């Protein structure tokens, strides 16, 4: 199994890059795990309190479960990947059966900050987009898809997202093997990653 980690700040385009990579690859050969599925269970808090959580700190992620799931997949076992609700700011009761594939992609803002997970990646990729680009994309997405209003997102960006990015996410770039510039759609970089994956699949 080839395990690829794809990190980068919020809104840099990780999900988009992953979709571009897996698009056209044989179905059933490549699996995807999102770090978002592994946010800590916050069922003990009210929704109001959950919405105040710092979701950009490494401690917000259940890395223990994510590590265990990656080990299971590497050992050929299927896992039940938790399903996260951005609107509820919590894990749901649902899980998605996720089967081991020849290539597994793990994506998330914080995945290169954790030493144990880092060791499991054969290839570490960091997607870079400038902070103004990321902020614009984030504002649009939070308001349209994730149930936040403009003022909330701006104040969260200033108080949490930006400082956490500078303290944890940007420094984790140094662990990457490949940096993909993604201010604009980067089809060349996507094709290079695809060809690495294709070599593994033949
Ligand atoms: N290179 C790009 N140029 C312009 N918009 C982009 C680009 N990559 C992604 N986007 C858009 O930015 C938003 C965030 O992208 P997404 O892939 O969800 O980022 P991430 O998963 O890193 O948070 C989405 O609306 C997506 O369509
Ligand atoms: N309930 C939540 C949980 C997390 N977030 C934000 O998601 C960002 C990470 O996801 P990306 O797709 O952007 O990589 C992170 O910056 C959290 O602030 C959220 O908005 N709501």
UniProtKB/TrEMBL annotation:
The record ties this protein, via Pfam families, to: PRK (PF00485)
Q: Which family does it belong to?
A: Belongs to the uridine kinase family.
State the protein's name: Uridine kinase
Catalytic activity, as annotated:
uridine + ATP = UMP + ADP + H(+); cytidine + ATP = CMP + ADP + H(+)
Q: In which pathway does it act?
A: Pyrimidine metabolism; UMP biosynthesis via salvage pathway; UMP from uridine: step 1/1; Pyrimidine metabolism; CTP biosynthesis via salvage pathway; CTP from cytidine: step 1/3
Q: Where is the Phosphoribulokinase/uridine kinase domain?
A: 3-188
Q: One GO MF term, please?
A: cytidine kinase activity
Its predominant location is cytoplasm
Q: CDD domains, per this entry?
A: UMPK (cd02023)
Q: Name one GO cellular component term.
A: cytoplasm
Q: Name one GO biological process term.
A: CTP salvage
What is the scientific name of the source organism?
Answer: Cellulophaga algicola (strain DSM 14237 / IC166 / ACAM 630)
- Keywords assigned: ATP-binding, Cytoplasm, Kinase, Nucleotide-binding, Transferase
Does the keyword ATP-binding feature in the UniProt annotation?
yes
**What EC class does the entry list?**
transferase
* Cited SUPFAM superfamilies: P-loop containing nucleoside triphosphate hydrolases
The record ties this protein, via InterPro entries, to: P-loop_NTPase (IPR027417), PRK/URK (IPR006083), Uridine_kinase-like (IPR000764)
């Amino acid at each position: 199994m080839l395990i690829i980690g794809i990190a980068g700040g919020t809104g840099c385009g990780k999900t988009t890059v992953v979709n571009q990579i897996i698009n056209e690859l044989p179905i059933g050969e490549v699996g995807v795990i999102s770090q978002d599925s592994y946010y800590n269970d916050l069922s003990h808090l009210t929704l109001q309190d959950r919405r105040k959580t710092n979701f950009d700190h490494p401690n917000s992620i259940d890395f223990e479960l994510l590590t265990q799931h990656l080990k299971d997949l590497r050992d050929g076992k299927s896992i039940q990947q938790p399903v996260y609700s951005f609107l509820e700011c919590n894990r749901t009761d649902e899980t998605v059966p996720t089967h081991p594939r020849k290539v597994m992609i793990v994506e998330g803002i914080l995945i290169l900050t954790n030493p144990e997970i880092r060791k499991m990646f054969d290839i570490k990729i960091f997607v870079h987009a400038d902070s103004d680009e990321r902020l614009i994309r984030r504002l649009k997405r939070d308001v349209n898809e994730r149930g936040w209003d403009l003022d909330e997102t701006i104040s969260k960006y200033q108080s949490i997202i930006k400082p956490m990015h500078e303290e944890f996410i940007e420094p984790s770039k140094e662990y990457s093997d490949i940096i993909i510039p993604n201010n604009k759609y980067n089809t060349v970089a996507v094709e290079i990653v695809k060809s690495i994956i294709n070599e593994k699949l033949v």
